[in-house]
Each structure stands twice: as structure tokens, then as C-alpha cells.
């Protein structure tokens, strides 16, 4: 299994072919939707099927923002802003709270540590759908239903356990001696953390932040029950605007899909190295 | 000090997870109906649970969910392992391949639902179009309308979405694999299959359990996809606990009944997570001892 083993040429071609097929299966379904976003509706409905777009168009995107005279625009810009505000705010707060928790688990011995750790993990186990029913009742009574604030608080609870888990793993990898040495040299515990341990854990925190952002950005089950209007609807919930009782506006939906994917795609590709090490080392060790 | 650091996290979890769970625990003993708020205080004892025991639809959904999660987790693990082994063999352009491989991970589950609803559409879908143009079919195949095919389509979509997570984690494991034991085994005359079975696979097991734990935390993500692709149909043939629950709670307004279902579904999720978490802890100790 090592790379040092010498393969026969036909084996090498078999591996390349296998990789090629796998990559096609992994990318084509997504690319097909992206392609549809730039096509007129006639081409989508054409029979026999039109495989390569004959007329490229930006009309589907114009339609989303109300720039087309054919159809009234949807409040997509507002959904986008809601999504961005909710995801970014809850990510930042979740990383700070989760980091504090992860640090506590990595550095201190205290009573009930193992139980508390398992309790956090189990809280993540509760499916969003199971939470959305009781949260709906409580949030309605508190008057924070259909507000960004209400959803930010919910996403905090969704993201904190995973952030604790990842940061715990990262802080464990940083030797305790470093911060102890700094404290002997006259730093306070806080200074030692901020100047020594925090910079070393930065790549771990970055990957925790990405996971938190992607989770909030993509979440649907909770958002669909706790948001009602353009005041707080997020992009995934907004996708439902394209479905009527029996039909779906495929080109409009595809255009909006592209708007949802782009931020996630750009972010993930920029930091994919951190993402991999975050998933593995934070989790395993 | 540690308690102080953990306090904010504990408060958030109590407020957003534990309190709602207590509320839903209470409502599962009432006849709470969304349209009649006063029924929140109409205590009916175990009636919801009793009805649930005799509710055939619910038990079908329960069994289907269990089978769905088992099938997808195992297939994703096997396919992810295969993909990781393949990519690990490629020496040129591996980073690009890894990046491409992560493409499905960025898709929101609800987007995956729409995407495959579109692709499996019987009149304009990619799959049927391809089959038509290749001359393999003359009648459209009703991918999402036929019960068996709809289940297949949903499992396909779920596997498409999540195999990468397994592949990435297992690839990281393969890259961390120590070379010495493998060379030693080869000198001793082991064939590649034996090396894989006795050295590579045991070393990879912690990574497998990590992946299983992470994914089992997210099994409920299947809700979003199924909600969009079939919404439990045709005739309840793809109904999972979670789609049945929201239908009961919001469309039929029977919140009390839905929350009783919620409790049973939470038990199922906890079962999967505790199972893998225990395996993971054991594997972690093994890793700690081995290194």
C-alpha cells in the first residue's frame, strides 16, 4: 500500500481511471445546477435535451434582484444580508465561547469533567427538527420569533459543542511548559495565553470558525420554523420561494443556489488546508 | 477557574437545548394543539405515547430511519475508504484532487435536496435525459414517484453529499501512516492485501470512528434533503421520523404528539452517537499508546 511499491502500467491506468470516474460523480451534479443558472428556461424544458447551453444568460440572476421586467423580484438581497449577519455573528461568538470551554477542558482537571464533555456532545446529538418544535413555542412567548437575534442564539448552541471539541484537541497539542515558562518570566496567566498559546492555536480556531460558519450558513430545519418573513429569513429558507404546489422554478432556484454556494466555496478553498488538519488533528488527538 | 471558562457555554446549552427539551417533555404529556394555545396545559398523561405505540406509520418511519442511517453510514465509509486509497496512490496533482473532492461538502443539505430533485426529475432531469439520449429507455423512469426508486434516489443524494467527509478523514489517516511497519511486512513476504488487512486497516480504525461520530451527530441533516426531494412521499414510502414529526407538529398542529415522537427520535440519535463515541474513546487510547 505504500507509494514505494512498483505498479504495473495497467494498474496505474486503472487507478487514474477510478479517480477520474469518482471526480466526475462528485462534481457533475453540482456543476449541472450551476450551468442551469445561466440558461434560459426554454433550454431546460427542451426535448430532446440541450446538453451544451446555446444561449448564455444572466437573466435568472437579474430576476432574483428585481432587475428584470418579466417578473417581480424576490427579496433575495435581504435574505443574503440576513444570512451573512446571522452566520458571522453567531460564528464569532461561538468561537469565543467555545474556545474558553475547549481551553478549560484541555488545561484543567476538575470534578465532573468527563460527564460535562459527554453532555456537550450529546446536546449536539439532538436533531434540529426535534428542537424546532419546542423552540418555536418558547421563542414565540419570548417574542424573538422571526428575528435575527433568535436565530443567532440558536446557532450558538448548535456550534459551541463542536468548537469545544476541536479547540480542546488543539490546545492539548500545545505543551503546557510554554505558558508556564512565560508566567515564570513575569507574564500574567492571561498574557501568557494571549501571547503564547493563542497564536499557536490560531489555525485550529480558524478551522473551528469555518465549520461554525458553514453550519449556520447552510442550516435549514431550525431556520425554516423560527423565521417567517424577510425580517429574518435566510438563504436556504428563501430557496423555498421557488416552489409552488406542484412546480419548481428551476432556473431561478439554480441562480439562487449559485449565490448560496459562492461564499461557502470561496471560503473553503482558501482555507482547505486548515480544514483538513482541523478535522483530523483536532478530533483524533 | 475552569467552571468560569465553561459558564457561557453551559448557559447557552441550557437555554437553547435543555429548556426546550423540558418544554417538549411537558407537551408530550398534553394534548397541545398549535391552533388552540390553551391546550398547552391540558394534561393527558401517557396518552400520546400509548397512541404512538400503536401508530403503524410511526414505527415504519422509525425502522426506515434506522435502516437509512445504517446503510448510508456504512456505504459512505466504504466508498470514502476506496476514494482515499485511490487518491493516496496518485502522486501528481494530489492537492487539486483533494480540493475537488471537497466540493460536495460545501453544499447546504437543502441545496443537495433541490439539486437531486432536479437531477432525478422524470421529465427534465439529467438522469432521464441521459438515458433517453443514449437510447436506453423510451419511457421516463419515475425516480422520485416510485417508492423503491425514491428511496434509492435519497440514499444516492445522501452518499453524494457525505462520502467526501469520510474520504478526507481517512486520507489524512493514510498520510500519517508510518512507513516502517509496512516495509518490514513486505520484507517478511506479506502481499499487499495482507499489509492492508494487518497494518493499514487497524491504524485507520480511529479515523473511521471519528468520521462515524461526526457523521452520526449530523444524521438529522437527512431531514432537509428528504423534505425537499419527496417530503416523505410517495404515500409515505420515504417517510423518516423527522419528516413525520414536523408534519404532525406543524401541518396537523398536534404538537403534543409530535414532541412525543421527538423524544423517541432523540433516543435513536443518542444511541448512534454514544455507540461511536465509546469506540472513539477506545481508539483514542489506542492511538495514545501507539505513539
From TrEMBL, chain A:
UniProt xrefs under InterPro entries: BP-dep_ABC_trans_perm (IPR050901), MetI-like (IPR000515), MetI-like_sf (IPR035906)
CDD domains with a match to the protein in the record: TM_PBP2
Transmembrane segments: 13-35, 79-105, 117-142, 148-166, 250-271
Pfam families recorded: BPD_transp_1
Domain called ABC transmembrane type-1: residue spans: 80-271
Compartments in which it is found: Cell membrane
Keywords noted in UniProt: Cell membrane, Membrane, Sugar transport, Transmembrane, Transmembrane helix, Transport
Keyword presence, Ribonucleoprotein: no
GO cellular component: plasma membrane
GO biological process, one term: transmembrane transport
Mode of membrane association: Multi-pass membrane protein
Known role: Part of the ABC transporter complex MalEFGK involved in maltose/maltodextrin import. Probably responsible for the translocation of the substrate across the membrane.
Family recorded in the similarity comment: Belongs to the binding-protein-dependent transport system permease family. MalFG subfamily.
Protein name: Maltose/maltodextrin transport system permease protein MalG
Annotated source species: Devosia litorisediminis
Classification lineage: Bacteria, Pseudomonadati, Pseudomonadota, Alphaproteobacteria, Hyphomicrobiales
Amino acid at each position: 500500500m505504500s507509494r514505494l511499491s512498483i505498479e504495473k502500467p495497467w494498474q496505474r491506468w486503472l487507478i487514474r481511471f477510478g479517480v477520474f470516474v469518482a471526480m466526475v460523480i462528485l462534481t457533475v451534479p453540482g456543476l449541472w445546477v450551476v450551468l442551469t443558472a445561466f440558461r434560459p428556461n426554454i433550454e431546460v424544458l427542451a426535448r430532446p435535451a440541450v446538453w451544451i447551453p446555446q444561449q448564455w444568460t444572466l437573466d435568472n440572476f437579474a430576476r432574483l434582484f428585481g432587475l428584470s421586467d418579466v417578473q417581480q423580484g424576490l427579496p433575495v438581497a435581504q435574505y443574503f444580508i440576513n444570512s451573512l449577519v446571522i452566520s458571522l455573528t453567531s460564528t464569532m461568538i461561538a468561537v469565543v465561547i467555545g474556545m474558553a470551554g475547549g481551553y478549560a477542558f484541555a488545561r484543567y482537571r476538575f470534578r465532573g469533567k468527563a460527564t460535562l464533555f459527554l453532555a456537550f456532545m450529546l446536546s449536539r446529538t439532538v436533531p434540529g427538527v426535534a428542537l424546532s418544535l419546542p423552540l418555536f413555542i418558547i421563542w414565540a412567548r419570548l417574542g424573538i420569533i422571526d428575528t435575527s437575534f433568535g436565530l443567532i442564539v440558536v446557532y450558538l448552541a448548535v456550534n459551541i459543542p463542536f468548537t469545544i471539541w476541536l479547540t480542546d484537541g488543539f490546545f492539548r497539542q500545545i505543551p503546557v511548559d510554554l505558558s508556564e515558562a512565560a508566567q515564570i518570566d513575569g507574564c500574567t496567566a492571561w498574557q501568557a495565553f494571549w501571547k503564547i498559546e493563542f497564536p499557536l492555536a490560531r489555525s485550529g480556531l480558524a478551522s473551528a470558525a469555518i465549520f461554525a460558519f458553514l453550519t449556520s450558513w447552510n442550516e435549514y430545519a431550525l431556520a425554516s420554523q423560527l423565521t417567517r418573513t424577510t425580517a429574518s429569513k435566510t438563504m436556504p429558507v428563501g430557496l423555498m420561494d421557488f416552489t409552488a404546489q406542484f412546480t419548481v422554478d428551476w432556473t431561478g432556484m439554480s441562480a439562487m443556489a449559485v449565490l448560496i454556494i459562492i461564499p461557502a466555496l470561496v471560503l473553503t478553498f482558501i482555507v482547505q488546508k486548515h480544514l483538513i488538519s482541523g478535522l483530523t488533528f483536532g478530533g483524533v488527538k | 477557574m475552569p467552571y468560569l471558562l465553561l459558564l457561557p457555554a453551559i448557559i447557552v446549552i441550557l437555554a437553547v437545548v435543555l429548556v426546550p427539551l423540558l418544554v417538549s417533555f411537558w407537551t408530550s404529556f398534553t394534548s397541545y394543539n398549535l391552533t388552540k394555545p390553551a391546550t398547552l396545559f391540558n394534561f393527558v398523561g401517557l396518552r400520546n405515547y400509548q397512541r404512538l405505540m400503536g401508530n403503524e406509520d410511526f414505527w415504519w418511519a422509525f425502522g426506515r430511519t434506522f435502516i437509512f442511517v445504517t446503510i448510508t453510514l456504512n456505504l459512505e465509509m466504504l466508498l470514502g475508504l476506496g476514494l482515499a486509497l485511490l487518491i493516496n496512490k496518485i502522486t501528481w496533482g494530489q492537492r487539486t484532487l483533494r480540493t475537488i473532492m471537497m466540493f460536495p461538502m460545501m453544499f447546504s443539505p437543502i441545496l443537495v435536496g433541490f439539486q437531486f430533485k432536479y437531477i432525478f426529475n422524470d421529465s427534465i432531469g439529467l438522469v432521464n435525459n441521459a438515458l433517453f439520449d443514449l437510447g436506453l429507455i423510451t419511457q421516463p423512469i419515475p425516480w422520485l414517484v416510485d417508492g423503491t426508486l425514491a428511496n434509492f434516489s435519497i440514499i444516492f443524494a445522501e452518499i453524494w453529499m457525505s462520502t467526501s467527509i469520510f474520504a478526507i478523514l481517512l486520507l489524512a489517516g493514510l498520510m500519517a501512516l508510518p512507513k516502517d511497519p509496512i516495509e518490514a511486512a513486505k520484507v517478511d513476504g506479506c502481499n499487499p492485501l495482507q499489509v492492508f488487512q494487518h497494518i493499514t486497516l487497524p491504524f485507520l480504525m480511529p479515523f473511521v470512528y471519528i468520521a462515524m461520530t461526526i457523521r452520526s451527530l449530523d444524521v438529522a441533516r437527512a431531514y432537509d434533503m428528504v423534505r425537499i426531494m419527496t417530503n416523505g412521499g410517495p404515500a409515505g414510502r420515504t417517510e423518516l421520523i423527522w419528516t413525520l414529526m414536523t408534519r404532525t407538529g406543524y401541518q396537523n398542529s398536534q404538537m403534543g404528539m409530535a414532541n412525543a415522537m421527538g423524544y423517541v427520535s432523540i433516543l435513536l440519535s443518542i444511541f448512534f452517537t454514544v455507540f461511536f463515541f465509546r469506540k472513539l474513546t477506545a481508539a483514542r487510547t489506542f492511538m495514545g499508546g501507539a505513539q
